[in-house]
Automatic annotation (TrEMBL), chain B:
Domain Periplasmic binding protein: 45-304
Span of the signal peptide: 1-25
Lineage: Bacteria, Bacillati, Actinomycetota, Actinomycetes, Propionibacteriales
Designated name of the protein: Autoinducer 2 ABC transporter substrate-binding protein
Record carries keyword Signal: yes
Pfam families: Peripla_BP_4
Highest taxon listed in the record's lineage: Bacteria
One of the record's GO cellular component terms: outer membrane-bounded periplasmic space
InterPro entries associated with the record: Bact_Solute-Bind_Prot2, Peripla_BP_I, SBP_2_dom
Organism whose genome encodes this protein: Tessaracoccus antarcticus
Amino acid sequence: MKRILRSTEFYVFLVVVAISIIIQARSGQFFTANNLVDIANAMVVPGLFAIGAYMVLVSGGIDVSFPALASLAVYAATRFLVDIGYEGSILLPFAIVIVLGALLGAFNGLFTTFLVIPTLIITLGTANVFSGIMQGALNSVQISTLPPSMNAFGRANLFVATNPTSGLTSSMPVSFLILVAVAVIIFFVMKFTMFGRGIYAIGGDEASAIRAGFKVKAIKFWLYVVVGVIAALAGLIRTTSMGQMHPTNLLGMEIMVIAAVVLGGVAITGGTGSLTGVMLGTLLIVIVQNSMILVGVPTYWQRFALGTLIIVGTGVSAVQLMRRRTRQRLVSA
Amino acid sequence: MKQRRLLSKIAGLTLASALALTACGGDGATTPGDGGDTGDSKHTIVIVPKDSTNPWFVRMETGVKKYAADTGLDVYQKGPAETDATMQVQVIRDLIAQKVDAIGVIPVDPGALEPVLKEAMDAGIVVVTHEGASQQNTQYNIEAFNNSAYGGFIMDNLAEAMGEEGTYTTMVGHVTNASHNEWADGGVAQQKEKYPNMKLLEAEPRVESQDDGEVAYQKAKELFKKYPDLKGIMGTSSFDAPGVARAIEELGLKDKVFTAGTGLPEANKEILDKGLVHALTLWDPADAGYALAEMARKVLDGEEIKDGIDLKVKGWDNMKFAEGSDKVLEGEGWIVINGENVDSFGF
């Protein structure tokens, strides 16, 4: 019980509940079937990005290149498929995007493994390289018509929720299953595999991780490969659900995603944090982003409200982290 | 040991910044114009759009290229990699350093651009703008049309779809975007004057799509959930109508609620064919690019700028100063796209 009370996840959960109740009270619309489906729908892409950002943060790094990575992988794949007039199943687009995501992730991985520079700097560089390749070499433009299977995948839904009073319908996209699957897999990987424990160990103290026998370089390299694949999947989902490829649509999301991850209790210095917290943090930001109009916050104040939430939320986790440090220091002294 | 690590850090940093630099060079450099290297009499005119990947500005580039071919001048387009005021400032700063003769800017955020445009003018560069009626540091700003009149025109289309009755609201890219807000204001004014049975949604009179189709979609869903009476959304940004159309389709509101706005024919073919959007209006960005380059040339050559000047494009051939302004010139270059004529434009 004490452990629960001390965990960040618990407080984020309380905030999510409190905010949901406030929105419900102000709008009467929050706990309706179609609104909950809308929130789940809006959660898919930020949720996947957050899982990737969480893994990197835990390892003591920080990755700001994932939106550019996803954009490049998906743009290249879509461009190629549209140019050859592809009409086959959705499997090939997924396969191409996963391979490209892995390759670009490996590019990040090589640099972070062999260069002793902060990953923030490296990924700032690679983010520019990725969007540079997309916009310069590939000469990216908006692609208005996707291959039919991609379009169909974006429109495919698990079920349609109807609001009994207003009659409005919202569809739960099939891609929500991908978020669930990735979250479950990464949860187990981070908790129960040597790879996952290695990521935590590196983030805690890299030198100790080496002495403890973790293959630090290999772990770091594969970490970025995995993160690249997850980011590219998110990119493909966004493109299919929009029904069009907007090359710059994802760029700029990294700040909000990293804020969500930190909000969920992942230490920006690495080594601590849980996937549960990350999902709650992301959920919180997605709920707030998608409920401003429901609550009736005027357009001019929406950014202010979101910014305040991030400052207060991340501030709370920072204070907790400091407390924990002080406690540890007291113990060791 | 420590020193060696520091060294490798420094080496790595240079590498990373070199990477970033190369990338910047690649960014949005859609045409490799070599600025400083031109002859004396040959003007270098650079058009700076908001975003080099948005199809709107890709289309604009075809007009810019045509102008270069028609006149033989060194005219090209170079924009930021995404719609971002800071990145646009950077592009302009680079052009000042290259000592180009004139720039034609389509500002992301006029306020954020004032200092750098002043710098450009102080450096002797001719500055003209498009879609920036509120811009102070510009010699001339040209508009395809009077912004209020165009807003009124979008409203006419929306009113027609809504049967001239019901509640509506307006959507803009950003509340700081000058043109979008003038269109929205013009639309509201038109409604007050011509459509007494329509009503602006007081609680949420203007929402932001952040020039992002996904945000437009999410916001539209929220609006229709919160305000069951809402019957129409007047879009302005080219991302608004497609995003709103996606929401209309998903919520099952087709033929119950309506949207109209600005958009390119080809990108919106599907939603127009399906009837999710009644009609879109626009001006041809290629014409705008052409006219903007011609405007810059006129200023460079010291031609007299007065009411009725001809920028050599249809709809832009009789430019008039806006009321009370000696900077803003307006034409009559708008067109309507609907399900019937969407295939006839070729862009």
